Amino acid sequence: MKILLFEDDGIQRLFPATIGRAAFTLSCGGFNLIQLLSLTSNELYAQTRKYVEQTTLLDVNPYLPNKVKFDFPIIDDPNEPILLVNATLVPSIKSIEILEQIIRDGRPTIVYNQPSDSAAAQVHLQDNEAVELLDEPQSVVAAAVVTAQQAWSLFERNSYPQTIQNAIVKLRLPASPFQLPIFQRPHDLVYYHLTCFAENQSYRLAQGEYKEIQDGVFVAPEVKLGDYLVANSSNGPIIIDRGASVGPYCYLCGPVYIGPDARIIEHAAIKDRVAVGRTTKIGGEVEASTIEPYTNKQHHGFLGHSYVGSWVNLGAGTCNSDLKNTYGTVVMEYPDGRYQTNMQFLGCIIGDFAKTAINTSIFTGKLVGACSMLYGYVTRNVPSFVNYARAFGQITEVSLDVLIATQSRMFARRNIVQQDAHIELLKDMYEQTKHERLMANEPLQL
User: Fold this and answer.
1) What is the pLDDT of residue 127?
2) How many CA atoms lie within 13 A of 418 on its CB side?
3) Is residue 98 a contact partner of residue 86, using CB atoms and an 8 Å limit?
4) Does 444 score more than 90 pLDDT?
5) According to the model, what pLDDT value does residue 165 have?
6) Of 369, 340, 435, 380, whose CA–CA distance to 136 is shortest?
7) Residue 445, pLDDT above cutoff 60
8) What's the rounded Cα separation, in Å, for the pair 68 and 407?
């Protein structure tokens, strides 16, 4: 059965994580959705925001065994069933197993979302009392089996992806007995990473070519391990993928996944459900976090219970808090209100291309916008494309020209050629986030 991924207005609630990437490329539990779907034998198609298509083809498709196409599937039979999948579906093995069962059944159906244990009503402070807001989506289409003709009609008549959600519901298809988890808020990237990591690791071991070099430690070919490495797999396996290297005097405490060509710096401590993306450089202490490809955290400092996008650089001594001094649950500040996560441990969500200066300190439960540069203490959410230095009394906009030049230099360090599509993506991200920024008359000077 052909699979067609679609984005809806849920991607906006996931900013800053989805500002510059297709939602199905968000990593969670060591995989992203398109990776898992590409391991199946089904043809993959996607309908997403136009401005992320080209960079997805350039940056994601080369690593997929089954490529995704941004064309509509060729229809031979108008009654042929097609599986529509919400691009915000959590990339867990259980999700894929349910989708495969739906594919085998082949009958028209709608699968709605499964509320997470972290989901709760938003909290709005009014007259110093907590008042629940009930505008959080209660039922979201996670997947649906429709005919090819219905699919064509849906995407032909609805030019922008966010209208697809209601259009699918209006088909009045039978509801599936299954429910599937989706990302509804940025903190879900951390919550579901923790809940699905173990099963995703087991699946990776079953599918990959790994050699167990000691109890619970599995390595792929071309892995390099330094001297005096301490590996503790009592709570889960440690998987080190092809071409990765781990320096001397490192501590790995499973479950842990280290991606292809990643480099773990000497004296690093990587522990308890950490997933490190390909071609990253990671040092210091990292716990229960996802780090997307090409990101650097090369020096000492703590990162915990967080999601970090691609091409991020965390300066020496950068630390985040993932636990409140009161040991209470973390309340997130989102554009539409405050949100009770019911999570005691929750760090930060950092968008693509963000940078931190030395000794930057990020408080609990903060959002860091894409392409921003941080200095000092981060006590509030950070908009995209700003220099954030509230400790110095300044928040100013980052020049787009500076970011384009910075991107070119970063790419060159990884032997990647900056293409027009990468530059256009930055321009589009800049336009998408104009409403976030606080402008200042003077440039930031430190």
Assistant:
1) 38
2) 17
3) no
4) no
5) 86
6) 340
7) no
8) 25
Q: Are strands 274-276 and 307-308 parallel, antiparallel or unpaired?
A: unpaired
Position 154 scores a pLDDT of: 87
Please report the pLDDT score of residue 161 as a whole number. 58
Q: Which long-range contacts (CB under 8 A, 24 or more apart) does 229-233 make?
A: none
The percent of residues above 90 in pLDDT, for the chain, comes to 81
Average pLDDT over residues 409-421: 95
Residue 136 has what pLDDT? 54
Rounded Cα distance, 358 and 347, in Å: 18
Give the CATH architecture of domain 2-184: Alpha-Beta Complex (3.90)
The segment(s) of the chain belonging to CATH 3.90.550.10 are 2-184
CATH superfamily of 189-436: Hexapeptide repeat proteins (2.160.10.10)
The helix-helix angle for 420-432 and 50-59 (nearest 10°) equals 140
Model pLDDT for residues 420-435, shown as the tens digit of each residue: 999 999 999 999 999 8
User: Are the C-beta atoms of 106 and 81 separated by less than 8 Å?
Assistant: yes
- How many Å apart are CA 3 and CA 67, to the nearest integer? 12
Tens of pLDDT, residue by residue over 141-162, are 999 999 999 998 888 765 555 5
- Token readout for 365 is 């439960």
Portions of the chain given CATH number 2.160.10.10: 189-436
Q: What pLDDT is attached to residue 41? A: 83
Average pLDDT score over the chain: 91
